Amino acid sequence: MAIKKSQLYSTLWTACDSLRGGMDASQYKDYVLVVLFLKYISDKAKADPDTLIEVPEGCTFSDVLKLRNKPNIGEEMNKILEKIADANKLQGVITNADFADENKLGKGNELVKTVSDLIGVFDNENLDFSNNRAADDDLIGDAYEYLMRNFATESGKSKGQFYTPAEVSRVMANVIGISKDERTKVLSIYDPACGSGSLLLRARAEARNNASIDGQEKDLATIGMAKMSMIIHGVDDAELLHGDTLNSPLHRENDTTLKQFDYVVANPPFSLKKWMKTAKENDAFSRWGHGDGIAPVPPEGCADYAFLLHIIESLNSTGHGACILPHGVLFRGGAEAEIREFLVGKKLISGIIGLPANLFYGTGIPACIIIIDKENAYKSEGIFMIDAKDGFAKDGAKNRLREQDIRRIVDTWDVHEDVPHYARFVKFDEIEKNGYNLNIPRYVSPQDNEVLQDITAHLRGGLPKHDVDEVLAHYWDACPSLKADLFEQRPDGYYDLKVSADIIAETINANDSYQERANGFLDGVAEFFDKVIPQMESLDVGCEPKALINTWGQQMLEATDAQQLVDPYAVYEILMNYWAEVMQDDCYMISRDGWTITYDFTKKKPTFEDMVCDLLPVEVMINAFFDEQHKAIIRKRAVIEQLQSKAEEFTEDNPEAFEEFFEDGKFNESIVKKEVTAFKKGKSEGSDEMNLMWQEYLEILAEKKRVAKEEKALVAELTKLLIDQYDSLTSDEIQSLVINEKWKETINKRAKAELDRVNQQMTADVLALNDRYATTLPGISQRVDELRNKVNAHLATMGINF
């Protein structure tokens, strides 16, 4: 049966993680990624003798498999890696992991078993990279990314900085504009703190035409990961160099001039201390110093602006860059304040995007993306700021940008229009008046969620005009006639709820303008499917579905944008989440095997509930063909459950007749039968009443067994029907079922659930407002008087009077 991509990666991670023992994930990753790399280059060389990497004789993955369980496996693995490294100039890239290191892998037989088991993880028929596409949706590239993300998660706070979350990389690659660059020349992309190369690869993936990659990284092991990643992603010309970028930049034209690039992306280490070593205050490359037109010197105790100034100097005259830095760079004083004034004066900063806290693996502090635009600096009038700190989802111990958060940021940046409480274009003169402080909340006011209490409403009753007209205004904008159905205004300007609290939801749902918006939303989802189903039907062997999902996402946004009720980005999130959960695995299987299915069973004597078919699951088949048969089984099971409950209640209600039949807390039915038989023969000491109870109990059990037998027959029948139906399906029928009964049906259900959620939120907000002022001060006083009088009456009966 075809394996799903997600299942394959999950299996790899589980197997690898279980083998590392006490080794830290930041160390173990070196071994796993090297074996993955070895498997990849071996598969590619077998399929194409002229492939990029030479695999010397005796160094294929098949040769490595022969080493399993041999006492000298560690030494032999090292020899193979040395040969490959020598043949391809990969010394320090794949030779950092010592497979004979007893301190990390164990001693003697333990080391042999650990290395043998690790190699065995990749001996998987589904891990065939021989036909791997050097594209953004290739199997090996995604596998490498998956493992890197998991290693970063497991590596701890101080050791996960080699990996920038893919979601943040996607935002950066989009906002620098590389996807819109239509120049036919080879674009140049640079990262001065490239880590494992994920930012560079994401930026390159966004380029319309070919792009060259350059990077520098201080950590030797990390630059090795980056070089492996480049090869795995089909990039054979990346210039990745090892060294300290701030003190010894290696990408340069000569001793005083840095090499300049079209695009620069970076996620440097935050607030690096004591960074200034061989670099001088008067920098040799004019990044900072005391000359005319040169930026002030960054503080030695914090390298954030040193990296940003290096990026600016590394951009050509039409260059664009994006750098992730901690929020402190936006408002800290001293030398950093002087640098901010310099950068604003030069109009180099075109945008700032505030990100949520706890996104990155090396730190939990909030960060921002600073966007540099040299090309348009001369005509710039201000800085576009986006406050995206609240758009995220919890993902284990970290936060994660959702698909809707990524898309909202990118769309807002592309449009460059103000969005209340989210984005604003701030002119330079306003920034100057604020002392060049760039802290985003100074310019983009956060949503005011504080509940204002209206004293008059608490005293006299009624609902404040401010709350009804302004706080709930977004509901009336979407559904203009709804306010009149829910509220009526009093002469004093306050409102009263027109309907009882228990029918608020019903009133909302019955409102004409709400119905119009709701129907418009559902029509938009239907319009989306009308557009994309022909594209879905075109999927076949060799397809590249990742190229389609971006189009589908755009079409979903466009189709649901006209209505004002449901946030189109929430519907976009539904589509993208379902893509991540199910559709991309389905499309991967289709790209390998076409519209064919294989099913399997999880048990030796299976029923339909033990059938597994990933592309066309059993529940889809049942809903399409055998809904009545399935409902019949459910009804039988309900009867069985009722009879079981009846039997249990019968024994509990009559303990004197049944307590002797319990053994070790379990009821023994056979003893009851023997006792009834003995009673009929006059050999039982039980009474007539007890005998009747026993017989009634046995009748309940007999009925339960009879129904269970019928249920079993129905299950067997449905199982056979399903197998026959699966076996008879044509590829066209499979395609129709997957697209219409699986994909479309699921997305429609989730879209309707989102509509219901909006209704529930509207109901909750109206109800909360009503409850806030439901009890007035006179009402409280009256209730206090009632209770006082009641207490006094009780005291009076006791002879106590006040």
| Radius of gyration, whole Å | 34 Å
What's the arrangement of strands in the largest beta sheet? 3-2-1-4-5-7-6-8-11
CATH architecture of the largest domain: 3-Layer(aba) Sandwich
Q: CA-to-CA gap between the ends?
A: 86 Å
* CATH fold name of the largest domain: Rossmann fold
Oligomer: single chain
Q: In total, how many beta strands?
A: 17
Helix content: 40-55%
Bin the strand percentage.
5-15%
- CATH class call of the largest domain: Alpha Beta
Number of DSSP helices? 29
- Look at the structure and name the CATH superfamily of the largest domain: Vaccinia Virus protein VP39
Structural class: alpha/beta
Number of domains: 4
Unreliable spans: 133-137
- Biggest sheet architecture: 9 strands, mixed
Arithmetic mean of pLDDT? 88
- Structural shape: globular
What descriptors fit this protein?
single chain, 802 residues, alpha/beta, Ferritin, Rossmann fold, 4 domains, 9-stranded mixed sheet, two-stranded antiparallel sheet, 29 helices, 10% strand
Outline of the structure:
This protein is 52% helix and 10% strand. The chain is α/β, with parallel strands linked by helices and 802 residues long.
Tell me the layout of helices and strands.
Blueprint: H1 5-19, H2 25-47, H3 61-65, H4 73-88, H5 102-105, H6 109-121, H7 139-154, H8 166-175, E1 187-191, H9 198-206, E2 211-217, H10 220-232, E3 239-242, E4 261-266, H11 304-313, E5 315-326, H12 335-345, E6 349-354, E7 367-373, E8 382-387, E9 393-395, E10 398-400, H13 403-415, E11 423-427, H14 428-433, H15 455-460, H16 465-471, H17 473-478, H18 482-486, E12 487-489, E13 495-497, H19 504-510, H20 512-537, H21 546-560, H22 568-593, E14 600-601, E15 611-612, H23 618-625, H24 627-653, H25 655-658, E16 662-663, E17 666-667, H26 669-680, H27 688-728, H28 731-772, H29 777-797
Parallel strand pairs: 1-2, 1-4, 2-3, 4-5, 6-8
Antiparallel strand pairs: 5-7, 6-7, 8-11, 9-10, 12-13, 14-15, 16-17
Helix pairs in contact: 1-6, 1-7, 2-7, 2-10, 8-9, 8-13, 13-22, 19-28, 20-21, 20-28, 21-22, 22-28, 23-28, 24-27, 26-27
